[in-house]
Specification:
The structure is a single chain. This protein has two domains: 53 residues; 60 residues, no CATH class. It is built from four helices and eight strands. The strands form three sheets. It has a four-stranded mixed beta sheet with strand order 7-6-5-8, with helices on one face. A two-stranded antiparallel ribbon has the order 1-2. A two-stranded antiparallel ribbon has the order 3-4. This is DNA-binding protein.
């Protein structure tokens, strides 16, 4: 399935053919056909295949929600492991990028690659309760 698609152009009160929906969503025709195989509702089984806009929106919103990976404040998303992980040794560095936000950097506890997480400066005390955070440069 397509990693990125646009839902803003899909009108809920309009019926789309497969190629029209592909153009509006910014994906290929094959991707829309894969969505139909995965459970996107269609009007009937006749050709041309027609999909109602509100049904396409419902399917795509649910598809986006399924891809979310919610994490706790002390977790980082490891790009190598493709999963939320705790930092190695409970250590993290905070690099402020603006006066109100910055980036936490830590090592993955499984594969030891560098993991990053953008956080607000106001969330830093809450993160410091569970992690040993060292503040690097100042802005």
């Amino acid at each position: 399935m397509s990693k990125r698609f646009r839902t803003r152009g899909i009108k809920s009160n309009k019926a789309y053919q497969v190629d029209e929906l592909a153009d509006v969503a910014g994906v290929s025709i094959l991707t829309v056909r894969n969505w139909i195989r995965a459970g996107m509702a269609q009007i009937d089984d006749q050709r041309p295949t027609m999909i109602l806009g509100f049904q396409a929106l419902n399917f795509l919103v649910a598809h986006k929600a399924k891809a979310k990976r919610p994490m706790a404040m002390h977790e980082f998303y490891c790009m190598r492991c493709k999963a939320p992980r705790s930092p190695l040794g409970g250590l993290a560095d905070f690099d402020p990028s603006t006066p109100t936000s910055g980036r936490l950097k830590a090592l993955c506890s499984v594969c030891e690659c560098v993991c990053n997480r953008n956080i607000s400066a106001k969330d830093l005390p809450e993160v410091s309760k569970t992690l040993d955070v060292e503040i690097r440069g100042t802005r």
